[in-house]
Automatic annotation (TrEMBL):
It is found in: Nucleus. Residues 1-61 form the MADS-box domain. Keywords: Coiled coil, DNA-binding, Nucleus, Transcription, Transcription regulation. Its main location: nucleus. This is Uncharacterized protein. SMART domains: MADS. One of its GO terms (cellular component) is nucleus. Residues 84-142 form the K-box domain. GO terms for molecular function: DNA-binding transcription factor activity; protein dimerization activity; RNA polymerase II transcription regulatory region sequence-specific DNA binding. One of its GO terms (biological process) is positive regulation of transcription by RNA polymerase II.
Amino acid sequence: MGRGKIEIKRIENSTNRQVTFSKRRNGIIKKATEITVLCDAKVSVVIFANNGKMHAYHSPSTTLEHILDKYQEFSGAKLWDAKHENLKNEIDRVKKENDDMRIELRHLNGEDIGSLQYPDLIRLEEALDIGTARVNDRKASI
């Protein structure tokens, strides 16, 4: 017994519409997963529900940003304007600065200093000496 054809039009009953949306969304994401696994394709799916909620899937070996960059490259459509590019660069810069500060903090805590070169160790020692002097000055002023 086969399935009957349905007329493709908006479902008026909101409960039925939500159930259909949920089932079809899951079906689309399942198909995207299957084509990723079977064909080693890079796939991204973004679905926005009418309540504003976003549902997304992208291949495990890639990111949504990578896929959008590829789309922009092949289609010639400009997805990112200069403002967004500047914001992306700023985010990358702040992330790198954050990572550098975390490494420096680990070094100040005495962790992972075996990988430091002699000049870096000298700078670390000077920073610790300055920090110790500041603490002693503050302690003396209290």
